[in-house]
UniProtKB/TrEMBL annotation:
Record-annotated Protein kinase domain positions: 1-199
Record's protein name: Protein kinase domain-containing protein
Keywords of this entry: Signal
GO molecular function: ATP binding; protein kinase activity
Protein's organism: Rhododendron simsii (Sims's rhododendron)
């Protein structure tokens, strides 16, 4: 993987930001990878630490999931697993960890949703250099979505299909729902990104990041 991590692509000034079509393809690659871990491996794998630093980019700008140090195998048919001790990185950690609830594949869905919003906006999920009402990315994205001001989420110079932008934002907001049962499975997430299924309006968020 000669070209570094997704974090390098999104958050450093040493590289040009990926264009919009590249962003969509990167998101699709990550979704495919998580779907494979959840549904196509002989033993289901819950990664538990999906974040840009753990997404490596190859020379063809293809995204590959890495660092399985926190990953857990699950043979349970109900896709649940109970762990002790919080695993993951602040900003991407699913609320269930803090509530001592069973961890399922929906934990990776949540983390993917945060990463997807970072890809769309080209900034970190927690950035206190921004104004207070913009510092927590998920809150700002939902406010812009609700106000129908999604053009604020992308750079002025960036050529974006607004319908695709809305689709990506809606996918991200569904993935980070506080209630795990509301989050789609990764198979559905992949179809949503590809635009092959209808995406209803996501519910309002109960912001978890701004409370921890």
């Amino acid at each position: 993987m000669c070209d570094g991590s997704l974090a390098d692509f999104l958050f450093t000034h040493e590289r040009p930001q990926p264009n919009w079509e590249e962003k969509v393809e990167i998101a699709r690659d990550i979704a495919r990878g998580i779907h494979y871990l959840h549904d196509e491996c002989e033993t289901q794998i819950i990664h538990c630490d999906i974040k840009p630093q753990n997404i490596l980019m190859d020379e063809h700008c293809c995204a590959k999931i890495s660092d399985f140090g926190l990953a857990k195998l699950s043979k349970a048919p109900d896709q649940t697993k109970t762990f002790t001790g919080i695993r993951g990185t602040r900003g991407y950690v699913v609320p269930e960890w803090h509530r001592r609830l069973p961890i399922t594949v929906k934990a990776d869905v949540y983390s993917f949703g945060i990463v997807l919003l970072e890809i769309v906006c080209g900034r970190k999920c927690l950035d206190w250099s921004h104004r207070e009402d913009e510092a927590v990315l998920e809150d700002w994205v939902y406010d812009c979505y609700e106000a129908r001001e999604m053009e604020k989420l992308v750079g002025e110079e960036e050529e974006v299909d607004m319908r695709k932008l809305e689709r990506m934002v809606k996918v991200g907001l569904w993935c980070i729902q506080d209630e795990p049962s509301l989050r789609p499975l990764m198979k559905k997430v992949l179809l949503m990104i590809e635009g092959t299924v209808y995406i209803p309006t996501p519910p309002s968020l109960t912001s978890f990041l701004s409370a921890v």
